[in-house]
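The passage that follows is intended for readers who have already worked through the single-chain material. We present the inputs for a multi-component assembly, then the predicted structure in tokenized form, and finally a short commentary. You are encouraged to pause after the input and sketch how you expect the pieces to fit together before reading on.
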Amino acid sequence: MALSGVEIFKHLPKTNCKKCGHPTCLAFAMKLAAKQASLDACPDASEDAKKILGESAAPPIRGITLGAGPKAVKVGEEICMFRHEKKFFNPNVFAVAIKASEAGDAASKKIEGVVTSEIDRVGQKLRVDAIAITDEGGDASKFASVVKQVVDGAPGVPVILVSKNPATIEAGIVHCADKKPLIYAATAENAEAMAKIAKEKKASLAVAADGLDALTALSEKVKGMGVDDLVLDSGARKAKDMIEHFTIIRRAAIKKNFKPLGYPIVTFATRDNSVSESMVAAIGTMKYASIIILSSVEKWKMLALLSLRQNIYTDPQVPMQVAQNVYKVGDAKENSPLMITTNFSLSYFIVRGEVENSKVPSWLAVMDNEGLSVLTAWAAGKFTASKIAQFITESGVEKNIKHKELIIPGYVAVLSGALEEKLPGWKITVGPREANQLPTFLKARA
Amino acid sequence: MALTIPKEAYSGKIFNVQLGSGTKAVTIGGASALPFLAFEGTFPNKPAVAFEIMDIAPSDWPETLQKAIGGVSANPVQWAKFCQQNGADIVALRLMGTHPDQKNKSVEEASKTAAEVAAAIDIPLLILGSGHVEKDSQVLQAAAAATRGKNCAIGKAVEENYKTIAAAAMANDHKLIAMSQLDVNLAKQLNILLTQMGFDKERIIMDPMSSALGYGLEYTYSVMERIRLAALLQNDAMMQTPVVCDIGANVWKVKETIAPDVEVPEWGSLADRALAWESITASAMITAGADMLIMRHPSAATKAKEMIAELAG
Ligand code: B12
Ligand code: SF4
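Having made your guess, compare it with the prediction:
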């Protein structure tokens, strides 16, 4: 159970030395109780205190890192049920399953799909995060050869080894032992053997059971064997069971600090129909799954799922935004067109992308509107003629260009008259409404 | 350590709202817990899926969508029947042609279309204006009268025109769709205004304003979660009206549902991409608590219905 601030305080040195960055030990204790600080910050905490507080000070959902090196991904350490309460912190992992029976060409194609999966969305680089190799009861050497194929073909990409047979896992893990793979899974039948491998190879271990009670018991058992980095699978595969189980797991961990379920969740969202699969995976993303294994990663599907994940995991308090500036797109010169938009990342990147598509070098003036979209900023009174005029005047853009023409978004066409008044000598041109009409618009002018 | 299932103690419940009549009537709402958490509440009704049609041929709908509807879209009556045959729980008629920037169709034309469509189907009907504040009040008054007795839902009533539209719904025994702009307090405020003018709160369907996957979806998602929490945990009666999400109109104007494969090879097949875009947006909205969806692509709507069935278990 979670300790209160006062209970934690009793175990601190009570010297108020401030080394933890807090004015008093009590203040620090309060932060610990609120899970906003870690005991490591107090250099003088006794071993005793660490032991007693360790359990209680740990985040309610343990953070687990999959893989090693630049492509490693961390999941867990979430602190709320609903994103508006604070935010969701560590985006779920999307992994593609490669069956041992797909060894060779089929596996190569999927590996290639993962390696080339990176897309740029609203300034973030997103990709398929991991590869799961599944044995389906086949023989260990075949499994191992696919693991090798994956490790060679997709260097650095975190790996999940899926087999209920410890001997199979042992055969496969030699190819990725130093890369912090995830082993799936310890079950009631094989727990000891799997725990042994996980400890030896410093791998994370999934515990898989049928239902939440069995999962609780198994998680405690495996933890008792000395494995700390666990992830949970309650066996939920139907969307209804997923929402129910995952909600209970998250609630038990966060609200009750129930340690046996205080780990990230792993699930298989595999379906025969790929659109259905994407919908189930989407539910996993929204409802607390941390590792979601898919059967295929077509480009359209990943675009949709990664966009959803980005939406759900953005900070609800702070819209994603870019710095106010006049950006050069392509080799813009003194006669190149000048356009204006707001500093909401989505608006900026969409517009910039379309200007790039047009191949017409341009200047893109991006005005700080606290990260609001064009229409929202306009409705909020933050994208008005006088504010735009002031920004353009102070931006110094006039030093870079010879003309005095400003292209404004079509949705705020109403601003053009007032803008011509506020920016004497300037010509205001109303651009298209949707950014995807920009290439046609710009080419027609060029 | 044995697991005790941590349950929420809900004190509120979503109102049941019935649309249509007879054996094909549809009731939405009724939930007594957060979406699909059957271990701690009951869900007498599944979320319903309305298929959208318009009173004019939808020339600005992308090709993928046009193809999926086939040749019926020039005729609203045929189109409505097509929806009914293809699994719609409800038909949503959007009188887009009445917008001054579109065909500026007259009030009479619009209400005639509404009456014809209502007569041609036996599933419930939603009648939506074009989103033009002034024209909508006139159009919806007439359309409400022309479909009297059909127990439709008319809308969308917004802050600027709710009085006339609510009065029309009341006078003709229809339900009302009330839309606010992505804000919990504004949604509540509009419901309060409506009840203050004597409109029965149990006849309102709330539209928190939808947005598409990748384009503000997270705002709608969180506003809906907050509405549902207020309704159930704080027993706030002004938040207990069922929620509708108008998905298609938002989804089918974003680049991901329009741009052909050759233009954005890194985005993969347009047909699948566009279908997934509407289907996943639907998944998100039902997960956040939608009681009714308005959708455009028949296959995406079918996918949404499959998912609803799976979630309702
Ligand atoms: C999400 C959202 C919000 C979020 C804010 C998101 C954000 N960071 O901006 C929140 C919930 C906070 C919000 C608040 C409000 N909102 Co709001 N919101 C939206 C919503 C759903 C999506 C906005 C969005 O993200 N669009 C995507 C971006 C990329 O669009 P964009 O910046 O306009 O860019 C496009 C084009 O303009 C063009 N473009 C952009 N730059 C340029 C430049 C050039 C040169 C050219 C040619 C083209 C171009 O390209 C882009 C893609 O095509 C829209 C409705 C909708 N579906 O569009 C309403 C909408 C913008 N909001 C609206 C309103 C009224 C408000 C509020 C005033 C109401 C309220 N709830 O209080 C507040 C104001 C904010 C405040 N006071 O703080 C109205 C504006 C109505 C109007 N025409 O006046 C809209 C249109 C909803 C509606 N239909 O009524 N909103
Ligand atoms: S560092 Fe430790 S001893 Fe010093 S004030 Fe902080 S909690 Fe107290």
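Commentary: Residues 181 and 209 of chain B are 6 Å apart (CA to CA). Chain B is about 40% helix and 15% strand. How closely did your sketch match?
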